[in-house]
Every structure is written in structure tokens, then in C-alpha cells.
Amino acid sequence: MNTNLIKNRKKPLCNILFLLVVTFFMKNSFSDQGFMISDHENNKLAFSYMISDLAHYDVLLLGEWHGNPEAIKFQFNIIKALIDKKQRISLSLEHIETGKQSIINRYISNDIDAETFIHSSEIWESYMPIIDVAKNNNISIIASNSPKNISACVNRYGKNYLNKPNGLFDKSYLTELFPINAKYKSLFLNKIRGHKINSNINNLFLSQVVKDYAMAKSINLKDKDVGELIIHISGRTHVEGGLGIKYYLNRMNPALKVATLIPVSGNRPILGSGENNYRLHLKNESSIINHARNKNEVICGMTS
User: Fold this and answer.
1) With 70 as the cut, is the pLDDT of residue 293 above it?
2) Span 63-84, mean pLDDT?
3) Which of 260, 261, 259, 265 has its CA nearest to residue 281?
4) What is the strand order of the sheet 258-264 is part of?
5) Domain 37-281 fold
6) Coil, strand, or helix at residue 216?
7) Given a cut of 90, is residue 90 above it in pLDDT?
């Protein structure tokens, strides 16, 4: 019998087994960056597996609890890993309003220093490592959130404010805000009922949706290169379940492949839990509040 032939026949099987083992550990070894990541069914995923998987998407909606140190470190590590992988990326931020894009551009061009940028953009100082790693690697940064005056006025006056002519603030970018995702509204209102809210809950939801729409529009307007991944960082509720920003992105551009990642902790309920691609398991929801918002009174131009 030809023993060499038998040995050669065994090699393909060995190769297949080797590949299966490597794939298993890539997907299930989640400690390589010190973070615990899973899919929506809580199957553990490796950080390196997730980074490779992101190559299949156009947009990553990265939900967070604002100011959470673990979440910010995780965001930084994602961006750095993608840079090291030579993945072309852009960064979009809820934390900066669309009208302040010029401030980002001036900081990237070194026309203003970090202190001026923080004050003018109202970005939390704890996010500066993310801003700077993008700046130092020629990564575009998009100011994506709705102007706070508009969302604050919607929170105060609801749909009546949206129906009012532009007046003090241009609301023309909201022309396709409706129809609103009914499932999102139902889950959102159920989630906040019982909490002490200092405004009408329907108005609060509408102001939330105004932000979702504005952020989706900013992402969609990006002149995206082939193979480029847009990473958008915003609060968890805007991302979870694909009910907010993703809903509008799908309406604006159905061809976009959008992934979502949300933080989870303990038994906190998740809106539309089955629709999230990735979960980041955090020890707690604590935040470091190290920002100074301009406290100018919002004037909405409404008489009643």
C-alpha cells in the first residue's frame, strides 16, 4: 500500500480541522482587548472577529452611555484597530451639532487649539482622544446632531413647533421626518413611563426622533468612498434595535449596510433587542461628566 498517498489524503482533513479551530477561537476568544463582546443572542465574540466582520458594512452605529469611561476606551480601540488594519473610515458624532462643522474643520487644520475647540464645539473633554486619533490619521469627522435649539423647542412645543414656519431657525432639513416609526414610539414611551420627566413624553419622543433624523441625514450626505466605513457614535437609545437612526438610514438609502452595537449592563431592558449586531458588556453605566454646555436660554419664537 502507498503510505505517502494515505498521508496526503489526511492533509486536507487536517487543514479543514485547523481552519475550524482557528475560526472558533477568533469568534469566541473575547479577552484580546479586555472587552466582553457578544452578538444579540449573547454568543461571545472576539474583538478581532468583530473588527474583521465590520469590513462587510458601510455604517457602524456605535451606541453608548455618554461619558462612560469603558465605552470611550472601547470606541478608541475600535478606531485604532481599524486604522491598523488599513480600513478606510470616517467618524460621525452626536456630540457636535451640524452647525459646528466649521469648528471641527478649523481644529483639524490646526487653526484653533484644543481648548478653543472644546469650548466652541461643546464636546466633552473625555472624547478628545477619539477626536485626536481621527485628526492625526486624516480621518474625516462629521458634526451630525440636530441644532440643540430646534430639538429643545420641539421638546417644549412638540409638533406645533415643527408646523410653524422657519422663523428663528431653519427646519427645512426635517422635510421627511414623518412618518415616524410606530414601534419605536411605543417602546420608547413604555420605557420612560414611571420615570420623573419634566416635559410632555410625546414631545420628548419627538425631539428624540428629530435628532435621529438629523444624524441619519448627516451620515447619508457623507460623500462615501467605496469600502469606507462610517463610524457614528451616539447615545444608546438612538441605536438600539435599529429603531432610530438606522430606521431613517434605511429609508434614505436602502442600499447601505448598517451594523449596530450597544452597551449592556445587568438586566437593563433593550429596545428591539434582536436587531443589534453586537453588544458590549459593561460593568456599569457610570459616566464622567466633564463638559460645560453653554446655558443660553432657548428662544423658540412661539407665543403659546
Assistant:
1) no
2) 95
3) 265
4) 44-45, 36-38, 278-281, 258-264, 59-64, 229-235, 89-97, 141-145
5) Rossmann fold (3.40.50)
6) helix
7) yes
In the chain, domain spans: 37-281
Listed residue (118, 107, 134) closest to 233, CA to CA: 134
- Interval 51-77 mean pLDDT: 95
Q: Which residues pair with 279 in a beta bridge?
A: 38, 262
Between the alpha carbon of residue 297 and those of residues 153, 206, 270, 293, 300, the distances in Å are 11, 20, 34, 12, 10
Residue carrying the nine cell digits 407665543: 303
- On the question of a cis peptide bond just before residue 165, with omega within 30 degrees of 0, the verdict is no
* 3-state SS class at 276: coil
Helix count (H) and strand count (E) of the chain?
Answer: 12, 8
Q: Which residue has the cell 503510505?
A: 3
- How many residues does this entry show for the chain? 304
**C-alpha grid cell for residue 278?**
453586537
Digit-coded pLDDT (tens) for 228-248: 999 999 999 999 999 999 999
| Nine-digit cell string for 10 | 489526511
Side-chain-facing half-sphere of 264: CA atoms under 13 Å: 24
Neighbour-count burial for 104-139, b at 16+ CB within 10 Å, e otherwise: beebbeeebeeeebbebbbbbebbeebbebbbeeeb
pLDDT digits (tens, 9 = 90+) for 148-205: 899 999 999 999 998 887 666 778 888 899 999 999 999 999 888 767 776 799 999 9
- Residue 29 CB partners (closer than 8 Å, separation 6+): 46
Mean pLDDT of 284-289: 69
Torsion of CA 70, 59, 245, 107, to 10 degrees: 70
Cell numbers found for residue 195 = 420615570
- Tell me if 207 sits within 8 A of 160, measured CB to CB: no
Q: Helix or strand or coil: residue 136?
A: helix
